[in-house]
Amino acid sequence: MAARRKKTQEVAKIPPRDDTYLDARNLLQYIFRERIEGAPEPTPRQYDICDTMQTAAWKVVFGEDRPGYPVIANDNRIIVEAPRGEGKSVIAQAIACWALNWNPKLNVFIASASEGFAGQFSTAVLSYIQTLEPLKWLAPVDGARESVLKFDVSCAHVGQHPSVKALGISGQLAGCRGDLIIVDDVETDENSRTEAEREKGMGRMNEIGAIRSGKRISATILLGTPHTEESIYNKLIKRGYKRTIWPAQYPDAAWMADSGKELAPMIAAQMAADPSLMGPSMRENAPTDPIRMGDGFLRDLEVQMGRSAFDMQMLLNTTLSDETRYPLKLRDLIVTDFGADGAPLGLQWSNAPEHLFTGVESLGLRGDYLYRPSIAGAEIGKFSGGIMTIDPAGLGHDMTGLCITRLLGGLIFVSYIGGMFGYGPNNLKAICLLAKKHGVRTLVPEKNWGGGMFGHLLIAAVRDHYPECAVDTDFDTKGQKEVRIIENLEPVMNAHRIVFSAQALIEEMRPLPGMSEERADSYRFQKQLTRITKDPKCLAHDDLVDAFAMGAQFWAPHMAHTTQHSSQQVHDKNVEDQIRAWYRESGQEPKAHRAGHNSVTLNFIKRGLAARR
């Protein structure tokens, strides 16, 4: 009798709730207005995602399918696939609050890639419950569990399983239970790079299936953005999950042929009403959410991420064509003439036919060629230093790859690319002499190779043949080689911030002694650059492109400025150097307050200097 009276009292505590928030989209709007700075209103795409989630969770909350809506999937297991940065987590947090608001006896289980990310999710849910007026009645009462990873809401029956529990996907899942399960971005770059890691992720998702409550009704909502062609989200479709996809731009015919059945109905309806939205190239089509992710934003993001990552995580395309399967293109490079001391400033990339570089045969895929810049400034900036990155030869017929790079005006300049077979004493000496010829004072070998043995051999050779040179033995490379090479090169190449010496490319294509051109083909830099994919061991030889990628990786921390800003800095330094030289030649000592002369002043000084001479 006492137990029945206690239960009655608990039920009586549930206050009247505002029917406005019977639709989760209205609660999402309230959360945005009260808590999301700079975004007072969800976008139509975010409302649509929210509506899909609440339809999947409706039966768990109210015990029946949502009136007037078709059942999304058997067992209410869905995958919400939307672009990176869409706000999927915030929307799902609103869904968790909405579900508890209308059924406080639910058990909500949250899983993410790590316990830290899962904790951020549950912390937001608890914060909304404690601070937002429509949800305050759910705040945990005295004596209830109240940690951010595990808490009970008011009016819940306190039992073995809390109202809300958050856990990393690799945590102890056995014994957990949930009526509403939200799995937030469990696929990441780090845990999806190899087949073994992906299989481990699928195993953890199998355990998620066991968390579903033993009751007849439960729902699982997966939030995801694919990070690999072999995404676990693709595999989960075969296990009964229903996926809905909201790409960042309207699809083209190829995307529709592969994934059209999973396109969000809202976007499909827009395309049916206006067929012109499906242009010939998805990258050139209009954005599906111009408020949150407009065309300018997406183009900048494509440059930052690189094309293949953009296709995967923004266009949500895991079926890669040759265009994206081979992401590194010759046409993204700039080819020009420069020496060991400096290079022209103000280079402008071009792929116009009149700027085609004809100095060497192009080994790129069909339609992919090398080009000279459309504009090269008359002013020459001076290099302040340079490095030679070295990928030591392994076993068999590998080369020791060598690449000399310098940084100027926000661009990486490549003055040498090539290699030599083996790494015996004669080759080590040749490396030192090559560095000396190009005025390079720092050699950067791959640290991981041979447990650092090559670095020790190189230090000994430098001591004998080029003692003024330093060897950086701390430069580290990690992860699958092919993925690392592409991720280091693609963003900077897509931004057209790598300039090759025309002479370096000509010399690299010279015949290899004792080797037919057919056999030499796989050793060519152009071939390695344009045929590398993220598949392990996709190239017979990768020595030159690996050395090149190491150079890009080395300079990446120093490339924060735009090319225009960096070029202006170099120009200002040139002006200041010339002014100081004039002062010294005129018998005066330049003073600090004279720094900062503009080009007009410089021209006046130049005329005076010429007259004096």
Quote the distance from N terminus to C terminus: 112 Å
Radius of gyration: 30 Å
- Percent of residues in helices comes to 25-40%
Overall pLDDT: 85
Strand elements, count: 17
Structure description:
The chain has 613 residues and is of the alpha/beta class. The protein is 40% helix and 13% strand. The protein has helices at residues 2-12, 24-35, 44-62, 88-102, 115-131, 195-211, 232-237, 253-259, 265-273, 295-305, 307-313, 322-325, 425-437, 453-465, 481-494, 502-508, 517-520, 525-531, 543-555, 563-585, 599-612; strands at 77-81, 108-112, 146-147, 150-151, 164-168, 180-184, 219-224, 242-245, 334-336, 342-344, 380-382, 387-391, 399-408, 411-421, 442-445, 470-471, 498-501. Strands 3-4-5-2-6-7-1-8 form an 8-stranded mixed sheet, with helices on one face. A 7-stranded mixed sheet has the order 9-17-14-13-12-15-16, sandwiched between helices. The longest helix is centred in the C-terminal third of the chain and has 23 residues, at 563-585. The chain starts with a helix and ends with a helix.
Task: Quickly list its features.
13% strand; 613 residues; eight-stranded mixed β-sheet; alpha/beta; 21 helices; seven-stranded mixed β-sheet; elongated; disordered N terminus; 40% helix
Concise synopsis of the structure shown:
With 613 residues, the protein is an alpha/beta fold. The chain has helices at 2-12, 24-35, 44-62, 88-102, 115-131, 195-211, 232-237, 253-259, 265-273, 295-305, 307-313, 322-325, 425-437, 453-465, 481-494, 502-508, 517-520, 525-531, 543-555, 563-585, 599-612, and strands spanning 77-81, 108-112, 146-147, 150-151, 164-168, 180-184, 219-224, 242-245, 334-336, 342-344, 380-382, 387-391, 399-408, 411-421, 442-445, 470-471, 498-501.
